[in-house]
Amino acid sequence: MALIELKNLHKRFGRLVVLNGVTLDIEEGQSVVIIGASGTGKSVLIKHIVGLLRPDEGEIYYDGKRIDLMPKRELMQVRKEFGFLFQMGALFDSATVEENVGFPLTEHTNKSPEAIKVIVKRVLSLVGLPDVASKMPAELSGGQKKRVALARAIALGPRVILYDEPTTGLDPIRSDVINELIIKLKRELKVTSIIVTHDMASAFKVGDRIVMLHEGKIIFDGAPSVVKTTDNDIVKRFVQGEASAEELSTLRGTT
Amino acid sequence: MDVVERVGQETFQAISAFGEFCAFVASTFKWLFTGWFKWRNIKLLLPQMFEVGVKSVPVVGVVGAFIGMVMAVETYSQFKAIGQENRLGSVINLSVVKQIGPVLAAVMLAGRVGGALTAELGTMNVTEQLDALRVMGADPIGYLVVPRFLACVLLTPILTIYSDFLGVIGGWLISVKTFGISDSLYWEYSARGVDTWQVMEGIVKSVFFGGAIGLISCYKGFTCGAGAMGVGKACTESFVKSFIAIIVLNFFFAQLAKDWYIGLYGMRSLFG
Questions:
Q1: What is each CA distance from B41 to A196, B48, B59, in whole angstroms?
Q2: To the nearest whole angstrom, how far is the Cα of A203 from the nearest Cα of chain B?
């Protein structure tokens, strides 16, 4: 049985259909990269997995338990098994790095403040930032913020980590640091990773399976080596970063 | 047909938004009465009490004092014209403790505290910090809304008492020290006009004003639209709706308190 199962998910916001029948199984230990153009519902899809959004139709299972109908308090318990790296980090800006990273531990464990400090130091070292504990998020660079957010996401030792565009807004070097970190966490913590991105270099580096969303449906699901040789025109153009003649026609019309 | 459709749509949206607000309020009370009172949560309350209470002291004080003073300035000549200037204390102090003090203190809090709460929670919303809390298994209602709501409920009455006090002093200062009304008569008529009921009426309703400010401001922050524009719009709506809530609640309280008072003690004239 797959660790995460999405069955025929539908989601719309007003008249905008975002997910239109998405079915996806994710095995434990896999690193699944979800690619797709901006606004195709990648972030919406992973928010369904942790119950931040509820589908209009369809079912979501985690470890055999149905998530989409789960009561709020029960869902809060299940979420402890997830780490979520938000696009902009979503660090609490009124708290220090140490308080941010220690937050899930303070909330869900009975560990002493000293023991929490030790864990915070360890996870910050794991993301390569052992000396920022006393800083405020505003004092960190974009890449550092994402690494601190990642440290917070792994503080409780999750089974699954969800990454929402982990390299967006970062320069190529910082992006590579994040990619290496994703690989390192998978290797050392044996976690299942779901990465939403449109950075193909990152997708090829960290993923052992690539899924492409287009107009609310999955149009490709396969290994990174297969995505490079696919005949599907939409997937091919996305992977190679080429706009269609139709997409370029508006530009030509203005010249 | 377009107009009918639009009216129907907007009515539907207004009803569903009100329903969402009621669910938000119910959720806040559920948290409040199901094991929120632990030392770990009380620690969240203290910084909010500082934000809501201590930081509002100067502005509420200044407004309270000047309201008392302006009441004296505006009413003195009218009372003097009918030779009743010694009774000024009863009118000024009754107005201050019963209506103007609580309402203006609440309006100031809606502007200063309500705006800040909406901006803070709205920014947390658009930067996904609220989602981050949810994902980490913490409910933002219990973690963020309950302490802010409690701080507003507990401190609005205290700030109202403070505002009333300065309003009374302000009125006295102008009436006695500037216009030369007899000190003893001023206080004697004040004591005749204002009794514990009226003071308590102002304080009791301020608890509800504080609750309305806290709930509306937090709700607007939680439901604000994307970006800086979304947060700005939410702050404006938060103030406007808190203000309307204060005025409407005040009307119903005035009616209710008057009916109860007459029922218990009978009609009491200021000119008796």
A1: 35, 12, 28
A2: 24
The string of pLDDT tens digits covering residues A77-91 is: 899 899 999 988 899
pTM of the model: 0.85
Q: Are strands A160-164 and A65-66 parallel, antiparallel or unpaired?
A: unpaired
Sheet containing A65-66: order of strands: A16-26, A4-13, A57-62, A65-66
The C-alpha of A1 sits at a distance from chain B's nearest C-alpha, in angstroms, of: 24
Q: What whole-number distance in Å separates Cα of residue B76 and Cα of residue B69?
A: 11
H-helix or E-strand spanning residue A193: strand A192-196
- Spatial CA neighbour of B64 closest among B31, B93, B100: B100
Q: State the Rg of chain A over Cα.
A: 19
Q: Are strands A4-13 and A16-26 parallel, antiparallel or unpaired?
A: antiparallel
ipTM of the complex: 0.85
pLDDT in tens, A39-54: 888 999 999 999 999 9
Question: Do B137 and A103 lie within an 8 Å CB cutoff?
Answer: no
Closest residue in B to A107 (Cα–Cα) = B138
Count the Cβ atoms, other than its own, within 10 Å of residue A61.
Answer: 17
Tokens 């929670």, residue? B121
In this structure, what DSSP letter does residue B226 have?
Answer: S
Measured in whole angstroms, the distance separating CA B143 from the mean position of its chain's CA atoms is 23
Residue with tokens 């979800």: A34
Classify residue B32 by burial, with Cβ atoms within 10 Å: 0-12, 13-18, 19+.
middle
